[in-house]
Amino acid sequence: MLRDKSLIPLSHQHQRALALCVRIDRASPIADGDTEAWQREIAQEFQSEIAVHFAAEEKYLFPVARRFAELTALVDDLLGEHAGLRRYFAEAAEHKLKPPALTEFARMLSTHIRKEERQLFESLQQLLNPEQLGELGTNLNEALAEAEHSCTLPSRSTRSRASKET
Question: What DSSP assignment string belongs to 16-51?
């Protein structure tokens, strides 16, 4: 199903976060010497975009989804995943993640995003009428306006392996 325009800003942020996950996966196993650079990039992503993204979902998207009994358990799962991901982001900001934790973080974030896209967004597009989707989109756009809309460039250590070879 095509993504409704009200959810596209969240989907665009999901794409950027998935790109980070793919780069971490391709860099694995991550060398101890590259861990600091990865943690700086993860912390920067959280500060510049993901913190605002989570807040927008929790303030607007999840309450709308909770109106539907069939989505309550999914929203509970997603909120639990937000809490787990926040712990990873905090550990990255404190430079406490070891290479295996970086890989686990990327797997968890990727799984979380795919669950939102494939289950939550698809369900909401079927359950909400166009007016409700429009109102949700307006609220999300206002909430997401606080996020930085810049592309974080990878450091030399966090570039994909193909880029390192050229």
Answer: HHHHHHHHHHHHPSPPGGGHHHHHHHHHHHIIIIIH
pTM for the whole structure: 0.88
The CATH number of whichever domain residue 33 belongs to comes to: 1.20.120
d(C-alpha 108, C-alpha 69), whole Å: 25
Evaluate whether residue 87 is within a structural domain: yes
**Count of domains forming the chain:** 1
> Hey, how many other C-beta atoms are within 10 angstroms of the C-beta on 62?
19
Rg (CA), the chain: 17
Determine the structural domain holding residue 73 and report its residue range: 22-147
Q: How far apart are CA 96 and CA 64, in angstroms?
A: 36
For residue 32, count CB atoms less than 10 angstroms from its CB and return exposed for 0-12, middle for 13-18, buried for 19 or more: exposed
Q: What integer pLDDT is reported at residue 165 of this predicted model?
A: 47
Task: Output the pLDDT for position 148.
Answer: 61
Report yes or no on 45 lying in a domain: yes
Residue 141: inside a domain:
yes
